[in-house]
Amino acid sequence: MIEIAKNILTEQFLCTHCLGRQFALLGYGLSDKERGEIIQNALVMEYYEQINSDEKISLMIKNISKCNNELATKSYQKVTKKKIEEEKITCELCDGLFDKLSNFVAEIKQLLLKEDYQSFLIGAIFPAILIEREDNLRAKYGITTGETMKEEFTREIGKSFSDNTGKTPSFDLPDITIIIDLKNNKINIEKRSLYIYGRYRKFIRTIPQTRWPCWECDSKGCAKCNFTGKMYQESVEELIANPIIKITGGSGSKFHGAGREDIDALMLGNGRPFVIEIQEPDIRSINLKRIERLVNRKAKGKVKIGQIVITNKKKLQHIKGSSTKTKKTYRAKITFEKEISSEQVTKIAQELQGAIIKQKTPQRVMHRRANLERPRTVYDIKVKKTGEKEIEAEITGQGGLYIKELISGDEGRTQPSFSSIVGFNAKCYQLDVIRLHYID
Ligand SMILES: [Zn+2]
Ligand SMILES: [Zn+2]
Fold first, then answer.
1. How far is the CA of 214 from the centre of ligand 2 (A)?
2. Which residues belong to the active site?
3. CA of 99 to the centre of ligand 1 (A)
4. Could you say which ligand is closest to the alpha carbon of residue 226?
5. What CATH architecture applies to the domain 324-437?
6. Looking at the chain, which residues constitute the CATH 3.30.2130.30 domain(s)?
7. Average pLDDT over residues 55-77
């Protein structure tokens, strides 16, 4: 180690950080700067007796002295009876980057002055030239014990920033990610989205689950959408998100539901799980009870949320991926094209109880789903006659079972169906989700 360090410092000027970093993998518990100081002192002692006699050693001691090393400065003066001229000299490896650590910390502090956050992560983008330079140095002197400049830089900034502000460094799910872009000389701040999990119920038949942009004008606004850019003026998403965006100062939102019901279907019972993602929030410490009350007051009669808690991106994937593992109970009102007998009603219930339905992608969703045939189970079915041509059914089916098509048969694409069992057309005219059996 001493030999390598001597070889480097007799030929070029390295700051204390850059020297120490070449030996970062030797032992634990020291910063690279502390390592650098130890090596500098060892070099001065090791070569003290040659300061006067060896020109290269003399240069090395001067280089070490310029890193504010007192031992080097005093030893040089003692032996040579000469003073080392004071001149500003820049590290040939990092271009003086590590002299500016405190400036970066101060700048980041200033940038985050108004942010509401607990944890942070420091990242950096390094210019290729700095990385190449260090690679070349290591190749030239046979160094295999170093860490990267970026590792030291981000760690030191992170440590100092944490000491300065009391905020917690986090690699896993930081509230704020600070990217120091040394290529373009700027600092970018990325705020982690705020995720709120809950369940919603929907009490009206006129709003979609998510914001529905106008197809005609691509959200720009046209006569068809009454210049709103939207096909529907409200949605479950907007009713939930808008008040929360207002409170948190977020830049936008994304709605993730555990499946969805049709626009004209109610969502009753225990509600449907959802996660609302608030992007780039200014405020994270929120009062959930207050938010719940506010959303429910504004969406009164349309949507009601409950059981809301803060969650994270990982749990979100669980919710999204679980739709076929759920069971759902629907209430359907059905009309037939002809009069239906009590025997036929009983036959429907008997044939569908526990049946596995072969269901091709319904024609109405073909534009956004792949055309596949899927087997889906009907777990339970209760049917009662409500008129000459009308029945009401309560159907508990596997997640992903399309109920409207189970009833109509979708021109033979769903087998069996209410229509195929009685031999003439059935149609669902009202459909509500009355319970979602969801495994959290
Ligand atoms: Zn340096
Ligand atoms: Zn439009």
1. 5
2. 262
3. 8
4. 2
5. 2-Layer Sandwich (3.30)
6. 97-191
7. 91
Alpha helices in 254-383 (DSSP H): 288-298, 313-320, 342-352
Q: What share of the chain is helix, strand, coil (3-state, %, to 5)?
A: 35, 25, 40
Distance 182 CA to ligand 1 centre (A): 15
Which residues have CB less than 5 Å away from ligand 2 (the ion)? 214, 216-217, 222, 224-225
Token readout for 408 is: 């109509």
In the chain, CATH 3.30.70.2510 sits at: 194-321
For domain 97-191, give the fold. Answer: VC0802-like (3.30.2130)
| 44 vs 64: CA distance, rounded Å | 8
- 100 CA to centre of ligand 1 in angstroms: 10
What pLDDT does residue 399 have? 85
Taking the CA of 13 as reference, the closest ligand is 1
How close is the Cα of 147 to the center of ligand 1, in Å? 13
What residues have CB less than 8 Å from 363, skipping those under 6 apart? 410, 411, 413
Assign 257 to helix, strand or coil.
strand
Tokens coding 130:
């700095």
Which ligand is the nearest neighbour of the Cα of 133? 1
**pLDDT score, position 394:** 96
Q: From CA 419, how far away is CA 103, in angstroms rounded?
A: 75
Share of the chain above pLDDT 90, in %: 73
| Confidence class for position 439, pLDDT limits 50, 70, 90 | low
Enter the tokens of residue 338: 């002809």
Fold of the 194-321 domain: Alpha-Beta Plaits (3.30.70)
What's the pTM value of the predicted model, to 2 decimals? 0.74
pLDDT surpasses 60 at 350: yes
Q: What is the pLDDT of residues 285-343, one digit of tens each?
A: 899 999 999 999 999 999 999 989 998 887 777 776 666 667 889 999 999 999 999 99
What is the location of CATH 3.30.70.3190 in the chain?
324-437
